[in-house]
Amino acid sequence: MAEPGTLPTGFRELEVLAVGTVLLVEALSGLSLNGLTIFSFCKTPALRTPSHLLVLSLALADSGISLNALVAATSSLLRVSHRRWPYGSDGCQAHGFQGCVTVLASICSSAAIAWGRYHHYCTRSPLAWSTAISLVLFVWLSSAFWAALPLLGWGHYNYEPLGTCCTLDYSRGDRNVTSFLFTMAFFNFLIPLFITHTSYQLMEQKLKKSGHLQVNTTLPARTLLLGWGPYALLYLYATVADVTSISPKLQMVPALIAKTVPTINAINYALGSETVCRGIWQCLSPQRSEQDRAK
């Protein structure tokens, strides 16, 4: 991190402002779309089903990512005037922990939705409430467990190159950090990606001939791969080489890409679902909803 009173190494004032602006747009977009999704779930009884509970879990996680991006955007804009991280060391650890929990919950929720859809479409039996609740609890407890490990000594949270947000420290080359990053990438990215891809592929193979496939079977896995893949590659690279050889600007690219995932997920899982869209429309048009019920 740059010393107080100076800009981060490798960045000009205009570049810091540009990153802050991009983060702000991503944060507001993700918060508004996922917030609308959460509001519709709370207000529309038809959406209170086990399968939609998994989508609600994803929307909550993505809202947390967008909130984390909002803090990063604010600190980026403040950094131009104050020239320092405004929330202190404890704030950095809290920011890193909150971001890690919601990122892992988002990735695992996507995998849970994929498995839930495979169960629904291929077994022709509805997802039980007990199963959906168990999946959601596992996703969030597992995410909190992995995110807490750096606070307990395995891994470490530190500032990203711009110094405006905190994440898992990948700049250290010691065994403690590299072993944690490799394990994290395997269990919390590669395995969920495999589950997501396999579930949709099996579902597509089974239902393609019948013509009853009503979900996008390629976008979820691509979103995970393209959205979080650059971060995973950065972490894996840090386990085998000196990551400081990568320019600070290039190191910030994965963070900016990842912050678009909440918006993409909201479009795919909420706005891309006729049932959820109907629920959102009912929330935004209460008078129309009352007329529909009267009919």
Structure write-up:
The chain has 295 residues and is mostly helical. Helix content is 75%, strand content 2%. It contains 10 helices and 2 strands. The relative contact order is 0.15. Residues 33-269 form the G-protein coupled receptors family 1 profile domain. Its main location: membrane. Keywords: Chromophore, Disulfide bond, G-protein coupled receptor, Membrane, Photoreceptor protein, Receptor, Retinal protein, Sensory transduction, Transducer, Transmembrane, Transmembrane helix, Vision. Receptor for all-trans- and 11-cis-retinal. Binds preferentially to the former and may catalyze the isomerization of the chromophore by a retinochrome-like mechanism.
Topology:
Elements: H1 13-43, H2 50-82, H3 88-123, H4 129-152, E1 157-159, E2 166-168, H5 175-207, H6 219-240, H7 248-258, H8 261-271, H9 274-284, H10 286-294
Antiparallel strand pairs: 1-2
